[in-house]
Amino acid sequence: MVATSTHRWRFFRAGGFDQVRIDRGADLAALGELDQKLWVALSCPTHGVECDEKTLALIDADHDGRIRAPDVIGATKWTCSVLKDASVLVERREALALSSIDDDADEGKRLRASAQQILKNLGKGDAKEISVEDLLDTAKIFAATRFNGDGVVPAASAEQPAIAGAIADVIKCVGSETDRSGAPGITKALLDKFYAEAADFAAWSKRAEDDGATILPLGPATAGAVDAFAAVRAKVDDYFARCRLLAFDARAAIPLNGDEAAYPKLAALELKGDELKGFPLAKVEAGKALPLDHGVNPAWATALEALRKSVVAPLLGDRASLTEVEWATIVRKLAPYEAWRGEKKGAIVEALGLARVRELLDGDDTRGAIEKLIAQDEALRPEA
Fold this sequence. Notes:
Elements: E1 10-14, E2 17-21, H1 25-29, E3 43-45, H2 53-59, E4 66-68, H3 69-81, E5 95-97, H4 106-121, E6 129-131, H5 132-136, H6 138-142, E7 153-154, H7 161-174, E8 177-178, E9 184-186, H8 188-210, H9 212-215, H10 222-248, H11 253-256, H12 262-267, E10 290-291, H13 301-316, E11 321-322, H14 324-342, H15 354-362, H16 366-378
Helix pairs in contact: 7-8, 8-15, 10-13, 10-14
């Protein structure tokens, strides 16, 4: 139940009903005392009505998409509390004089400081009043400021080129959040994520350096060799499996070398090579080595040549064919690299290169310098 109002209300008649007249600051200040049976409406949506939707969103305290009496009363009560005289609310002026803000209280003091900072940012440091238009473009308000209280630090916030470059690298790897100025920047969470990924990547890379003979049997060329190996591994395994099966039962020779019925169909086509990918790498015979040059499936000739040059020759010496035992040796020698690559961590920072990652990890407290910038920005949160 609403307590008896001590405010003297005035009424006017419209549409056959007596309605409360609210045209004085005192009326607004006492709005919470008005019996809600006298309100014309107790609820309205925040969309689809002839009111500024941004204003309605500010009034909608619980963000449920509707403005109710408590929302209006709460917004009015707060507004009156930060003004010296609520009468300015009914003057319908386009701007609010800074002198109208009651800065005796903490809330009013923060509000006035914010208004003055906004005007200063906009190049109106000597202005005595602030308008809605001054507040509309947040990016414009913060465009020329290093810090704006949102906890997001763009590269431009750093005065040292090295720190600005580090922030740019962090953004490149882990992404960014939009600063109030509109520029991309990083937060403490993004910075922490970057350094965690960088530490993981550096540790993973060091494992290959510490055990290079095992993990990198071909040195820097190991990565390319493993790619060439992986491209044909399944087909080579398939070839030797067919040879073993044929050694077990010679009757399997015809089906294991491909369906003869497929050849007449192929003869009618203009062959481009892909049509043969499903056939074995070479003619299958019991105990036969895999040829690497002559007599190979044309669809796989290029891949087998890459295997011969990048893997077979460096590991076993150049040769025209590969036995199953030799193939098993290759698989064994490349297994440590495959396992190491499969456990890669910190790939998100790999594009920077290992040298740059280590520089950022081991530099003269680059991380600390960025954390300091973020802390300076956060310190302005109440004012902003």
